Amino acid sequence: MFLIACLSILPLLLIVYYTIQRTVGHHSRQETRHMIQDMVVEAMNKHDEDFDD
Q: CA 19, CA 17: separation in Å to the nearest integer?
Protein backbone atom coordinates (compact mmCIF):
# COMPACT_ATOMS: atom_id res chain seq x y z
CA MET A 1 0.00 0.00 0.00
CA PHE A 2 2.86 2.37 0.89
CA LEU A 3 4.55 1.64 -2.44
CA ILE A 4 1.38 2.43 -4.37
CA ALA A 5 1.01 5.72 -2.48
CA CYS A 6 4.63 6.69 -3.15
CA LEU A 7 4.44 5.83 -6.83
CA SER A 8 1.17 7.72 -7.26
CA ILE A 9 2.53 10.85 -5.55
CA LEU A 10 5.82 10.95 -7.49
CA PRO A 11 4.32 12.15 -10.82
CA LEU A 12 2.38 14.86 -8.99
CA LEU A 13 5.53 16.04 -7.25
CA LEU A 14 7.41 16.08 -10.55
CA ILE A 15 4.70 18.22 -12.15
CA VAL A 16 4.76 20.66 -9.22
CA TYR A 17 8.56 20.78 -9.26
CA TYR A 18 8.64 21.38 -13.03
CA THR A 19 6.00 24.12 -12.75
CA ILE A 20 7.90 25.90 -9.98
CA GLN A 21 11.18 25.70 -11.86
CA ARG A 22 9.64 27.05 -15.07
CA THR A 23 7.76 29.81 -13.20
CA VAL A 24 10.84 31.04 -11.39
CA GLY A 25 12.67 31.22 -14.70
CA HIS A 26 16.17 30.80 -13.38
CA HIS A 27 16.77 27.66 -15.37
CA SER A 28 16.56 26.80 -19.02
CA ARG A 29 14.33 23.98 -20.20
CA GLN A 30 17.30 21.64 -20.58
CA GLU A 31 18.57 22.40 -17.07
CA THR A 32 15.09 21.75 -15.69
CA ARG A 33 14.89 18.40 -17.50
CA HIS A 34 18.32 17.45 -16.19
CA MET A 35 17.27 18.31 -12.62
CA ILE A 36 14.08 16.25 -12.98
CA GLN A 37 16.07 13.28 -14.29
CA ASP A 38 18.47 13.59 -11.37
CA MET A 39 15.56 13.73 -8.94
CA VAL A 40 13.96 10.60 -10.46
CA VAL A 41 17.28 8.71 -10.33
CA GLU A 42 17.75 9.75 -6.70
CA ALA A 43 14.22 8.64 -5.83
CA MET A 44 14.72 5.26 -7.51
CA ASN A 45 18.05 4.76 -5.73
CA LYS A 46 16.43 5.56 -2.39
CA HIS A 47 13.64 3.14 -3.26
CA ASP A 48 16.23 0.39 -3.95
CA GLU A 49 18.00 1.14 -0.65
CA ASP A 50 14.68 0.79 1.20
CA PHE A 51 14.31 -2.76 -0.15
CA ASP A 52 17.91 -3.59 0.82
CA ASP A 53 17.18 -2.73 4.46
A: 5
Per-residue pLDDT of the chain in tens (53 residues, 90 and over written 9): 777 877 788 888 888 888 887 777 666 778 878 888 998 888 888 766 666 55
Q: At 51, is the secondary structure helix, strand, or coil?
A: helix
> CA 49, CA 23: separation in Å to the nearest integer?
33
Whether pTM exceeds 0.85: no
Cα dihedral 19, 16, 42, 4, rounded to 10, equals -150
